[in-house]
Design brief:
289 residues; Rossmann fold
């Protein structure tokens, strides 16, 4: 069976969950066991648990955080681990003619997936570095807030009194660390994408999909996914679930990191192409938009 695979790749807190949810609504199989809702992902993570747990194992074996918040190169995948990845892919291929998955940690293993899936198509979900780091820190804040909500008396009062200060402390603690993670993921993505022909990937953002979801849909429908059907991106996008973006860059101590992130972001913008939403959608649906 000639299977077609879509890899949804992107940094944590960049919108990969809502993009995966949209693609699932359009008919793409993204797994039967999906990670459910959590802090910062009230609608669900839409991560295939099989790939998620495999990636967590690979990270754990290297004494790295299972979150995937890493900023340094890892040791290469062993032959045994390569077999584990291959076996999982074969399992998915047997079950589906057209399928894909989403897990931000995928970015750390793109070279191996390229070898195992030489014809896969990559949807690269991007978000600017300040908004991403801000979202990561806000999630830390919400997790801290949840812990304090379970407390009573003085501890709860202390949280109310120092709530704003706590956010600033988190920015001080995590701004450099999370910006380094953002840089590492995007360096991995850009290095990998540079090896692919242009017809094997698309760069998107949730903001772009709000304007031009039809172009991305048309690309996948016309060349990749026969069973795809159009569902507006607005049907899954919930603006009220987005956290406010805080300017966290003043908290970055190593200003060279900001200069590096700006340069990377300029590279990312080179991969955006103008889309003609209405025309593209009409071509594959034969319907007015």
């Amino acid at each position: 069976m000639n299977t077609k695979v879509i890899v949804i790749a992107g940094m944590h807190r960049s919108g990969t969950s809502v993009v995966a949810q949209w693609l699932q609504r359009c008919g793409l199989s993204i797994g039967t066991k999906l990670e459910g809702p959590g802090i910062g992902n009230e609608q669900g993570h839409f991560e295939d648990a099989d790939f998620l747990h495999l990636h967590q194992k690979l990270l754990s074996r290297r004494s790295l955080s299972e979150t995937g918040f890493v900023s340094k190169p890892m040791t290469t995948v062993t032959e045994l681990e390569k077999m584990e990845m291959s076996d999982l892919i074969e399992l998915k291929n047997r079950k589906n003619k057209e399928w894909g998955w989403k897990d931000p940690r995928t970015c750390l293993f793109l070279d191996m997936y390229s070898e195992l899936l030489p014809e896969a198509y990559y949807i690269v979900v991007v978000r600017d570095f300040n908004a991403t780091v801000s979202s990561m820190i806000t999630r830390e804040f919400k997790m801290l807030e949840k812990r304090y909500h379970t407390k009573k008396g003085f501890s709860k009062l202390k949280w109310k009194l120092f709530k704003r200060k706590s956010m600033e402390q988190l920015c001080e603690k995590y701004a450099d660390r999370y910006l380094k993670v953002w840089i590492h993921y995007y360096e991995k993505l850009l290095s990998f994408i540079s090896t692919l022909p242009e017809n094997r990937f698309t760069f998107v953002s949730y903001k772009e999909l709000l304007r031009n979801d039809g172009a991305v849909f048309a690309t996948l429908k016309k060349d990749r996914l026969e069973s795809f059907y159009y569902v507006p991106f607005t049907s899954v996008y919930k603006k009220e679930l987005l956290s406010d973006v805080t300017d966290v860059m003043p908290f970055v101590k190593d200003k060279a990191l900001i200069r590096k992130a700006i340069a990377i972001q300029q590279q990312v913008h080179l991969y955006y192409l103008p889309f003609e939403n209405t025309t593209a959608l009409q071509e594959v649906t034969g319907a007015a938009v």
